[in-house]
Amino acid sequence: MTQDNHGKKYKFGMVIDLDKCTGCGSCMVACMSENNVPFKEDETNKKDSITWMRVFKLTNGKPFPETDICYMPRPCMHCGGKGDHGHSPCVSVCPATATDYGHDTGIVSQIYTRCFGCRYCMGACPYHARYFNWWDPKWPDGMEEYLSPNVSPRMRGVVEKCSFCYHRYQAARDKAYHEERRDEIEESEYQTACTQACPAGAITFGDLNNPDHEVCKFVNPDPHQCGKPRNPKAFRLLERLQTNPKVYYISEREWVRKAGDNYRDGEWGKEIHSSDGNSHK
Amino acid sequence: MDSALIPKGAKRCPFPVFATGIAVVGAVLLWGVYAMGLCWLKGLNQTNMNDYYGFALWIWADLAVIAIGGGAFFTGLLKYVFGIDELKNIINLAVVIGFICYSSALLILAIDIGQPLRGWFIFWHANVHSMLTEVAFCLSLYFSVLTIEFVPLILENRQIDKVPFFHNLSHNMHGVMAIFAATGAFLSCFHQGSLGGVAGVLYGRPFAYREGLLVWPWTFFLFTWSAAAYGPCFTLVVTKLFEGITRKKLVKDNVVNLLAKISGWMITTYIIAKIIDTIYWMGVTAPDMGFSVMDFYSNNSFYGIWILFAEIVLGGIVPAVILTVKKYRENKKLLLVAIILGVFGVCLNRWVMVLQVMAVPVMSFDTWALYLPSWQEVATTILPVAYGIILISLAYRYLPVFPQEQELYDTK
User: Fold this and answer.
1) Residue ranges of domains in chain B
2) Which of A23, A41, A140, A192 is the most buried (most CB within 10 A)?
């Protein structure tokens, strides 16, 4: 049985427990390795390094001994866009249809050979989840042998981003067909590389439409409010922009949940009514 | 040396002087071409853009030249569609400027994209929901219209005009120019507007996002209106520059004052709309997204509230007042101040709508992203300026750009 997602089959999503994340960076390494993400000799400038999965470091801004740290892994949010109709901030602006919304999966794709590098999608994404190939991809001698044959490397001058390891979904789907299960894939058959690599088990991945999947149990998304979490400890980044991401975060810590969005003085913790009739807490 | 090409009776500087000037500007142009080559051959790593600053100096230059080139479509509309005949004395200049601005914009876009050889994908795989698609279609089509508008002027060159076919072609093209002017105005409205829409639809960027009418955010209408309002200011600035450099009067005061007056009223209406838009954005749009106005103008070393003041007051209200009040408008110095401030104002608006949009952090734990362009970016931005100076100088020397030049010279 599936919850309503405009009648579509899957709605893949991720839940990240920020209280479990230690900031070790395994998810970033696994992602780069899995997806043939190129790197530079000097990766210190994070504004031009490609990190499909990037771990941000947040602090509560308080002096010792109240100082608290939170590490926030940030993949592509695979936004459903306003109204959750698939008009993600990036998909709706791409002039060449080089990025698309999969209504059957909820995954935002990137067609590298169609992208001509205008970077409008990067400007549209408030999460900085999109990266431009400023240089030709190069790997140290011999390392080409370790590239994954399932993911095409990208050329200079195009944009790339997290695909929720879409090639793994394709492989799981192929397997299901082969075993005459149509495209009924099990939860464990399609997991992203970052999910599997996380030593703390902070990342959970699955179908948000399927109440048997862990992701759905964790956040209890409200299908009538574009997937907004009903779990009070869960939140989505920049909920108020109505981008409707499919990546959810969970934290017991109030300051962490507050850091997930922008609030004017006195707004936090209260019911906020916006001019378009939406309410937010 | 080249006197046979110069319009009959027109006084021009000696050819060696002209050639020297062109050579100097040509050297700057070559510098820009070298930087352009580097960007094409080595890629956009030659710039200081990054993943936070995907849009930078070039896109600002692109938007700015298109805004100030707006004099072409608006003057054309006034002359050919609304029948304001006096403007025939400045329309040629407006068209040449428009041609330069739009061709520059196309060149900048060709350098700016990461895969220039795939540029045509924007037409082939067009996404009808994207404002950039609308920009590409309207920009290319309007550039074609501008070329058609420019051709009759080229055909009026003394030597070309001697060929009966070209003489008749030019004559006939003038006859149907109203159709092209109207088409150009239509295309340009959508083109200027869609450039405004590029920023306005970004609902993930609270600094840029605006509500609107149907599929068009308010910035769509504001960009069109501001290009029509401020474009003539740039046409007048170039006229004054020409008059200053050549030490000759080239356009009669009544024509200048008429265009200045129309521009003044357009700026007045535009700036009222812009103020209303800004107040609504400050009071409703941004707060809905969790932002206070000062979030956009503080905690960084450059973008303070001064920029909003400079755009609206210095670049809007001041020129609007000067250009609408007859006494001020007819004062030559004040007129010059107003048209320069006007050009400054619209360029600053485009800067804000491109670069400040990229600079403002959106996630609560993110930081402001400021950037300094690389020399390659500066050189490729100066390239269209050098190209424009050369083309407009050639046009002035060999074509009858200013129809009143002879009459004004004789009167003197």
Assistant:
1) 1-48+373-400, 49-371
2) A192
For residue A144, the enclosing domain spans 12-280
Dihedral class, residue A138 (left if φ above 0, else alpha if ψ from -120 to 50, else beta): beta
Nearest C-alpha of chain B: how many angstroms from A158? 6
CB spacing of A48 vs B50 below 8 angstroms: yes
Query: Shortest CA distance to A247 belongs to which of A112, A72, A110?
Result: A72
Q: How many residues does chain A have?
A: 281
Residue A3 has pLDDT above 60, yes or no: no
**CA–CA gap between residue B369 and residue B299 (Å, rounded):** 11
Within 8 A of B365 by CB-CB distance, chain A residues are 56, 58, 72, 259
Number of structural domains found in chain A: 1
Second-level CATH architecture of B49-371: Up-down Bundle (1.20)
Burial (CB count within 10 angstroms: exposed 0-12, middle 13-18, buried 19+), residue A260 = buried
Q: Is B47 left (phi over 0), alpha (psi -120 to 50) or beta?
A: beta
| CATH number, position A114 | 3.30.70.20
pLDDT tens for each residue of A201-249: 999 999 999 999 999 999 999 989 999 999 999 999 999 999 999 999 9
Is A190 contained in some domain? Answer: yes
Three-state DSSP at B126 gives coil
Query: Number of residue pairs across A and B with CB atoms under 8 Å?
Result: 170
What is the spatial distance between Cα A16 and Cα A73, in angstroms, rounded to a whole number?
Answer: 8
B95, B86 Cβ separation under 8 angstroms: no
- Are A128 and B205 within 8 A, CB to CB? no
Min Cα separation B147/chain A (Å): 25
pLDDT at A2 over 70: no
At B29, is the secondary structure helix, strand, or coil?
helix
Q: What is each CA distance from B98 to A36, B73, B157, in whole angstroms?
A: 46, 8, 19
Q: Does the CB of A226 have a partner CB in chain B at under 8 Å? A: no
Q: How many alpha carbons fall within 13 Å on the CB side of residue B304?
A: 3
pLDDT, residue B412, reads 67
> Tell me, what's the pLDDT at A5?
45
Which chain B residue's Cα is nearest to A272? B288
- pTM for this predicted structure: 0.93
Query: Considering only CA atoms, which of B93, B215, B95, B90 is closest in space to residue B143?
Result: B95
Query: Each residue of B256-300: pLDDT tens digit?
Result: 999 999 999 999 999 999 999 999 999 999 999 999 999 999 999
DSSP state of B324: H
A190 to chain B, closest Cα gap in Å: 30
Indicate whether A170 belongs to any domain.
Answer: yes
Helix (H) or strand (E) holding A55, with range, is strand A54-59
CA distance A75 to chain B (A): 14
CA torsion through residues A242, A245, A248, A254, sign? negative
Does residue A5 lie in a domain region? no
Picking from B115, B123, B205 by the largest number of A CB atoms within 10 A of its own CB, the best residue to mutate is B115
For the question of an ipTM over 0.95, the answer is: no
A93 lies in some domain: yes
